[in-house]
Write a structure and sequence with these properties.
Elements: H1 2-22, H2 27-39, H3 41-52, H4 57-64, H5 66-81, H6 89-102, E1 106-115, H7 118-130, E2 135-140, H8 147-162, E3 165-171, H9 180-188, E4 192-196, E5 217-221, E6 225-229, E7 247-248, E8 251-255, H10 258-274, H11 280-285, E9 298-305, H12 313-324, E10 328-332, E11 336-337, H13 340-351, E12 355-361, H14 367-383, E13 386-390, E14 393-394, E15 398-401, E16 405-409, E17 413-414, H15 415-420, E18 423-429, H16 431-446, E19 448-451, H17 453-457, H18 461-471
Parallel strand pairs: 2-3, 3-4, 7-14, 10-12, 11-17, 12-13
Antiparallel strand pairs: 1-8, 1-9, 2-5, 5-6, 6-8, 9-18, 10-15, 13-19, 15-16, 16-18
Helix pairs in contact: 1-2, 2-3, 5-10, 6-12, 7-8, 8-9, 12-13, 14-18
Length: 477
C-alpha cells in the first residue's frame, strides 16, 4: 500500500509540475487541481487526464497554422473593402483595440437582425437554407437528432442532393447524444462532415480533449448571409422542454461584409478538422467570398478566441468595454464564473459611477455552476451592481456598453468560455441597433426579479455551503 501511495504522490507532483512549468497555468487553476489531487488522488488523476490535461504540442501547432490562413485572408479583405468605416472616437477606440489585439477587422455596410427565441431563429435559418444557390457552411456545438435537428438535417441533405456545396462541423462533446449515423446521412447525400476533436478509436467516452469544446454556432449561406449567437440546434433551445422554459436567447442574422468574418472563422476550423489548407484566393475563386453590396449601416467585428492562444481575446474585449463605459453596462449570461481580473473590472465600473446591470437565469441547467454563479452575484450585489434573475432560462450571451457597442455571440462570462472553449462573438457599432437591444433588455427586466442581500441571506444552509464549495473550483468550471 505504501508503494501505491508513493506512486500516486509522484504522479500528482509530476502533474502539478507540468501545469506550472510546461503548460504555465494560472495559480488559481493549479490550486484548484491541487485540492482535487490531494483529497481524491486516484479519481483526481482520472479527472485530470480527461478534463484537465492541456492541448498537445502537435494540436497547438496545427491550430496555430490557422494564422497563416488569417494573414492571407486579411490581405484579401483589405483589397476588397478598400475603405475604413466611419466611427465615432469611442467606437474607433474599441474597434482599434480589437483589430490590434485579435486581428479582427471592422466590416461596414451590414444589415443585422436580432432573434431572442429559438423558433424564430430556426425558421429564418431554414428559409435561408432552402434558398441557398451556391454553398452552406454550418458549425454548431450542439446539433441533436431530435425534432428541430431532423428538420434542419433534412434541408441540408436535400440541398446536397441538388448539388449545393454543404459542409457541417459538429463538436464531439456537444453532440455526444446524437448518433453518428445522423451525420452520415449528410455524407451519403453528398455533403461533407467534420467532427471537432473526435474521440479516440471512435469511442465517445474516450476523448482526452473533451475539456476543449468548439462552442461556436455559425451558419453561412452562399457567402452572403451569416448567423451567429447562442442558439443551438436542439429542442430545448426552442423552448420545448418545460424544465428550462421559457428559453431566452440572443442570435444574429447578418447580411453584408461581416459575413466574410464568419466565413473565415468557419474555414479556419474546417481546415483544422480536415488537416489540409487552401489559400484565400482559391476560396474566392470557388465562390465562398463573393463581392458584397451595401446591405445596411451597422459596423461589425467578428472576434474569435480559443485555447490555442494564451491571450483570451473575447474576455479582453469585454474588459475593454467595461473599463471604457461611462454610463451603463448590461451583461446577460447563463453562467457568471469569471476570474479576478473580470470581477475587478466590474467592481471598478460600479465604483466609477457606471450603472452595472447583470441578468442571469432564474432556472439553472447546471446546478453546481449555478451555485458558483450565485456566489459571484452576491459579491457584485454587495459592491453595488444590480442583479436580475430572468423568469426562465437565460442563455443569452450579450454585453452592451453605453450607446457605443454591443457584443453578441457564443461566449459566456465564465472561465470555460474565456479560456477553454473555442468561441466567436460579433461586436456591433450602430446607435439605432443598440437602442433596439436596449428595448429588448427593458422587456427582459419586466420578466425578471431584482435580487438583493436579503435574497442570499434567506437561502438555505445547503445552498450557502454549495456556493462556497463550488466557487473554489471556479477556474475549472
Amino acid at each position: 500500500m505504501d508503494y501505491i501511495t508513493l506512486i500516486i504522490l509522484i504522479i500528482n507532483i509530476v502533474l502539478i509540475g507540468t501545469m506550472m512549468f510546461i503548460e504555465r497555468r494560472k495559480p488559481e487553476v493549479i490550486i484548484s487541481w491541487l485540492v482535487i489531487l490531494t483529497f481524491v488522488p486516484i479519481l483526481g488523476f482520472l479527472f485530470y487526464i480527461i478534463f484537465g490535461s492541456g492541448l498537445s504540442v502537435k494540436t497547438r501547432r496545427m491550430l496555430k497554422r490557422k494564422i497563416l490562413y488569417e494573414d492571407t485572408y486579411e490581405s484579401f479583405v483589405w483589397e476588397e473593402l478598400l475603405r475604413l468605416p466611419e466611427l465615432s472616437d469611442r467606437e474607433a477606440e474599441l474597434a482599434s483595440f480589437n483589430e490590434r489585439a485579435s486581428s479582427s477587422l471592422p466590416y461596414f455596410d451590414n444589415d443585422v437582425k436580432i432573434f431572442t427565441f429559438g423558433r424564430e431563429k430556426i425558421e429564418a435559418l431554414k428559409a435561408d437554407l432552402r434558398n441557398a444557390k451556391h454553398s452552406i457552411n454550418m458549425e454548431y456545438y450542439i446539433f441533436d437528432d431530435e425534432g428541430v435537428g431532423k428538420e434542419v438535417m433534412k434541408i441540408l441533405c436535400d440541398k446536397a442532393r441538388e448539388g449545393i456545396k454543404v459542409k457541417l462541423i459538429f463538436d464531439s462533446v456537444g453532440c455526444i447524444r446524437a448518433p453518428r449515423r445522423f451525420f452520415k446521412r449528410l455524407k451519403k447525400a453528398g455533403g461533407e462532415v467534420a467532427e471537432f476533436f473526435p474521440p479516440l478509436f471512435g469511442i465517445r467516452l474516450i476523448n482526452f480533449k473533451m475539456n476543449y469544446r468548439n462552442h461556436r454556432k455559425i451558419a453561412v449561406i452562399d457567402g452572403r448571409i451569416g448567423y451567429v449567437g447562442g442558439i443551438n440546434i436542439r429542442d430545448d433551445h426552442m423552448g420545448l422542454k418545460k424544465k428550462l422554459s421559457p428559453w431566452r436567447d440572443t442570435h444574429l442574422r447578418i447580411e453584408g461584409n461581416a459575413v466574410y468574418g464568419l466565413q473565415n472563422a468557419f474555414f479556419n476550423d474546417w481546415f483544422f478538422c480536415k488537416k489540409r489548407h487552401i489559400s484565400s484566393s482559391e476560396l474566392v475563386a470557388l465562390g465562398y467570398f463573393p463581392k458584397m453590396e451595401k446591405c445596411g449601416n451597422v459596423v461589425a467585428q467578428i472576434v474569435c478566441s480559443g485555447p490555442e492562444s494564451k491571450v483570451h481575446y473575447i474576455k479582453d474585449s469585454y474588459i475593454k468595454m467595461i473599463s471604457s463605459a461611462k454610463e451603463r453596462i448590461i451583461l446577460q449570461t447563463p453562467y457568471l464564473v469569471p476570474d479576478d481580473i473580470f470581477m475587478s473590472a466590474l467592481k471598478q465600473a460600479v465604483k466609477s459611477g457606471v450603472e452595472v446591470i447583470i441578468m442571469l437565469p432564474k432556472k439553472p441547467d447546471k446546478r453546481f455552476v449555478y451555485l458558483a454563479t450565485l456566489s459571484f452575484a452576491r459579491e457584485l450585489v454587495e459592491c453595488g451592481a444590480k442583479i436580475y434573475l430572468y423568469n426562465g432560462f437565460l442563455h443569452s450571451k450579450l454585453l452592451i456598453m453605453d450607446d457605443v457597442c454591443v457584443s453578441i455571440g457564443t461566449c459566456n462570462a465564465d472561465n470555460r468560455s474565456f479560456a477553454l472553449n473555442f468561441e466567436i462573438n460579433a461586436f456591433l457599432y450602430n446607435k439605432e441597433f443598440i437602442n433596439k437591444c436596449y428595448k429588448l433588455l427593458e422587456e427582459d427586466i419586466i420578466k425578471s426579479i431584482q435580487i438583493d442581500l436579503t435574497y442570499f441571506k434567506q437561502k438555505p444552509l445547503t445552498s450557502k455551503f454549495g456556493q462556497t464549495f463550488f466557487r473554489m473550483f471556479a477556474p475549472l468550471l
